[in-house]
Amino acid sequence: MYKDYALYSGFSIRKGKPRDGRVLSLSSIRCTKYSKPQIRRKTDTLEQSTLTIRQSNFTVTDCKASILVKFSEGSSMCTVVGFHEHHNHPFVERFNRDLSRISRKLPFTSKQFIHNMSLNRIGPIVSHRVLVSLMGGHHNVRGTPTDFKNWSQSVRLYIGDRDAQLVIDRLKERSESLPNFYYEFVVEKGQLRSIFWADEISKINYEVFGDVLAFDATYHTNKYNMIFVPFTGVDNHKQCVTFGAGLLFNETTESYKWLLESFLKAHKKQPKLVLTD
Q1: Residues 259, 265, 266, 267: is their CA dihedral positive or negative?
Q2: CB atoms within 10 A of CB 147
Q3: What is the chain's pLDDT, residue by residue, as a tens digit (277 residues)?
Q4: Is 10 left (phi over 0), alpha (psi -120 to 50) or beta?
Q5: Under 8 Å CB-to-CB from 4, ≥6 apart: which residues?
Q6: d(Cα 84, Cα 31) in Å, to the nearest integer?
Q7: What is the rounded distance in angstroms from the CA atom of residue 219 to the CA atom of residue 96?
Q8: Is the CB of residue 196 less than 8 Å from the CB of residue 263?
Q9: Among 10, 175, 164, which Cα is nearest to 101's?
Q10: Going along 10-152, which residue ranges are E strands?
């Protein structure tokens, strides 16, 4: 309740710490400017005042605004025993509240929006722009583009070892919705070793411009240390076109043999000339 009040009013809050490390039944929630300003002495003692406030982007003003609640033993109920309403500093303006500390915490609706946009191959930065446009301005959206990007990255890190299965599931969904989509993979001892895929556009490109085929296996991904092998060619406008792509766990003869056989299964004809490094 006090958190919503602070968000609506335009100030940030933090929990107070119990004194001497004791666990008390009383808990306080204070304004973030509650503490006293820190001071330090200057080295030059010839000036009249030898005390100065430390320079910082975030300043405290010894604001006493807070609320004190008491928890009942054996129950989740609490009672408000103290409330100090007045602040000694101005509030954050409405059009700048999206940059405050309390407003930068993403609500569940924003997280769900980022996830739904990612399912449609839309990144967190563009998702923030779309949400700002839908909500009518930055002041109506909690979180900055950086917050959207950080949350999206944390979700990818949370996926962890299950991301290989997510890739296979995504390719399976595309093959069911796109009849000409082709993919093949190899799993050994529960580990994804090789994968190849080619969509309808790749097949059309190979049908028309597939006389000369080039593939380069020098691309290594950072996280998985797998070898990325794109199959490319050149169209009539001397522009690069893609015929398919694959990922290999290692550069053995068996891996390349499987990859080239998968390529022939997808396109059903051999090129006249193959270029490689």
Answers
A1: positive
A2: 20
A3: 666 677 666 676 777 665 545 545 667 777 777 777 666 555 555 555 555 555 555 577 778 777 777 776 766 677 777 777 778 777 766 666 666 666 667 888 888 888 888 888 888 889 989 998 888 887 778 788 888 888 887 776 655 556 677 788 888 888 888 888 999 999 887 788 899 999 999 999 999 999 999 988 767 655 667 888 999 999 999 899 999 999 988 888 999 999 999 999 999 999 999 988 7
A4: left
A5: none
A6: 10
A7: 44
A8: yes
A9: 10
A10: 13-15, 26-31, 39-41, 51-53, 66-71, 78-84
**For residues 146 and 104, what is the distance between their CA atoms, to the nearest angstrom?**
10
Cα distances (angstroms) measured from residue 115 to each of 130, 147, 160, 162, 268: 13, 14, 17, 17, 38
5: its two tokens: 């009040």
Instruction: Calculate the alpha carbon distances from 79 to 28, 31, 168 in Å.
Output: 12, 19, 53
